[in-house]
Amino acid sequence: MLPLLAPVTVRPRDDRDHADRIALSAATTGGVHMATKDVRSWIDERREANVFHVERIPFAELDQWRFEDVTGNLVHSSGRFFAIEGLHVVEADGPHGDGPYREWRQPVIKQPEVGILGILAKEFGGVLHFLMQAKMEPGNPNLVQLSPTVQATRSNYTKAHGGTNVKLIEYFAPPDPERIIVDVLQAEQGSWFFRKSNRNMIVETVDDVPIWDDFCWLTLGQIAELMHEDETINMNARSVLSCLPYHDEAPGALLSDVQLLSWFTNERSRHDVRARRIPLTDVHGWKQGVEAIEHEDGRYFKVLAVAVKGSNREKISWTQPLLESVGTGVVAFLVREIDGVPHVLVHARADGGFLDTVELAPTVQCTPQNYAHLPAESRPPFLDYVLDAPRSRIRYEAMHSEEGGRFLNVRARYLAIEADDTVEAPPGYAWVTPGQLTALTRHGHYVNVEARTLLACIHAATAQPQREA
Amino acid sequence: MLPLLAPVTVRPRDDRDHADRIALSAATTGGVHMATKDVRSWIDERREANVFHVERIPFAELDQWRFEDVTGNLVHSSGRFFAIEGLHVVEADGPHGDGPYREWRQPVIKQPEVGILGILAKEFGGVLHFLMQAKMEPGNPNLVQLSPTVQATRSNYTKAHGGTNVKLIEYFAPPDPERIIVDVLQAEQGSWFFRKSNRNMIVETVDDVPIWDDFCWLTLGQIAELMHEDETINMNARSVLSCLPYHDEAPGALLSDVQLLSWFTNERSRHDVRARRIPLTDVHGWKQGVEAIEHEDGRYFKVLAVAVKGSNREKISWTQPLLESVGTGVVAFLVREIDGVPHVLVHARADGGFLDTVELAPTVQCTPQNYAHLPAESRPPFLDYVLDAPRSRIRYEAMHSEEGGRFLNVRARYLAIEADDTVEAPPGYAWVTPGQLTALTRHGHYVNVEARTLLACIHAATAQPQREA
């Protein structure tokens, strides 16, 4: 007997029930799989169960990586993964394209492949849980953090380096169209990567999913609590979680959506950023040593090499380059209630590695050490406001590290600081609501990765106010 | 006495009343300024009032344009406007980045400046009217077409070429935040431009606006009727009008918005387009003559030069390069009602000049002549379906020309063709509603310029079904 064909039917364009179920998960602080208080010890246990060593090595000891002739670019012999090349950036502010401009050269990570960052979701007892992985990345300060269910470069999951299969990748490549909650290409750091995007995904399942020792189902309420802990939720997980389609409960915003998009369009139009890849050998102002490529004045970051020995990753041991920042970053949103509606002060930031001129960044995003030699007036706007904020003004604070597969101990203090009612948005800045940022995360190249982390932190702070110390 | 400061207040994020007023304007076929039937003769009159001559000239007679040493690029002596350079494109389909690929070189227009395409709107008798300009562009087949109120490159309105001021530019640079209806960066042809975007704007005013002879206020109902005429509404106007935030009256769509965005994300991820600017001299397969740069087999397009003499443009006379297509294009949406809701079949098209891999294109977008030498199986999908469609299946048809400031007599037949109920979307294609496309035009790099024209045509066909011949 032939199966009956279901008639083709239209469906509502909005999936409103996603938001309801997200709200329920955010309000649920007890998960079915593990109590939140036990997650820390589980991560510690995973760290101990798999002995990893990460050791700095001279570039000469890199296996399958080499400095290419002529260009001097640091490349993998397969031509895959990523490469360290040079970038030449000229930025001009409009409106005329010949106003004041800045120009510089720097090393940059070139990684054209689009990877997958996927979190699997499933209802237990009617509440959405999210499958987090305790994953080792060589650059993490504490090696193991909670990562998405799957984080895989294309080279990973197509087995370019001969490793094992990526667990659960079948839920994401391709996803079941009936079960997609989030699926968007989001860019990574524009100051370190050249136009890199990853596919940020949340996909639901009703299957029985095997649970390996490295995996744990958590509610959003549990994740919110963990987001208040230092260096626990990794950058990729923060990025994916920031794209969750939360309800906007606020009655409105200072700017309507049309006004916000118009302001953003103007910011994109008035900046003229010309970024050009150049050979690494042409990056003036940086010097290459046996163990590091670094800025002549010791600022910004270093490129270096590590050897990794582990036991439960896709490969047992490998070597690779990493970037190391020279200081700890400060990444902060000023927050202000306008008519009782919380707003954050976004900055339309131009970075050389952005695909399209500017993205919305936190109010402050910098490494203060890079400004130590400059006069006070050259310091980034609001940096001192943030650093000098009394504790009573801090709505959120935690130390997070950036992606441990590319960055070694690159840490920043992520903050949400309550601003005075008198703080107005200067040119290039705008007060927007978290609901507006959330709506923009449905599309790429609006909300930068640091702002996405802070957005996830703000969702966490809303779901789960920090417990008193 | 000090003025009272209005309290800061939040407003609703949505401007729902814009859509209501757009619907009213679309339903209004009689404007206060000019009857629709008189617009044609007014355009003719404007054409005759200003005697223009456009003449093809050898490259050597270009004034202030020259072929640069070494690169051979065709550039303006000011370094502004645009340049003709070379483009090297390698396209691979995923998922592995080493699947079948195509590779070619071609001349390309490089124009990094963001221009403004702005339409001024104003209520007369409670109905929105839009200020259209009868504007001469040297490449228009009939020289004068209806254009936006303002179309200005940055060089134009900052007077780089010493011309007159651009009329009414003050409404758009900057716009009054309280009166913005549309403000978005939209890309132009990815096959001819390298990553060019213009700022598409519609701004309302309550001012008394002086009316010059070249300007006319029209309702959307009137513009809809004119959109059924050949070569009357220029490309820039079509692009801006496509971004109008019409209500979506449909109960839903075949794909929810999340599903549509996920499908699009997958299309972006699976294509790998590496486009690199190269010197024009390195464009193999093309030959440079005294009067034209053309493909060795006479396909695709030519680069040539013209001298323009006019009387009411920003400059009295000038010379410039233009691109001329070798044939007439076919640009068509297949249209199908699903559950009574009209859908169009979009194609995720990869063009070398796109900033970000793929954009949503019409079902068919090609110049059939370029395929004449190829076997039937190499013809674009659905081309013959469109060309063979009986007249009873044609929902919309008109000839439109592309931007007359860059393209000489580049025409295409724009069509909406009713498809059989059995036509399914093959890989790389999806059935989406006009309402979904409209929502995506709020953001750049989703809907390509040809699909935007067709979207404006479909809005026009909905507002104003074609009169019987």
From TrEMBL, chains A, B:
Residues 37-244, 259-458 form the dTDP-4-dehydro-6-deoxy-alpha-D-glucopyranose 2,3-dehydratase domain. InterPro entries: EvaA-like, EvaA-like_sf. Keywords: Lyase. One of its GO terms (molecular function) is lyase activity. It is an enzyme of class 4 (lyase). Its EC number is 4.2.1.159. Pfam families: Hexose_dehydrat. The keyword Lyase applies. This is Oxidase EvaA. It comes from Amycolatopsis roodepoortensis.
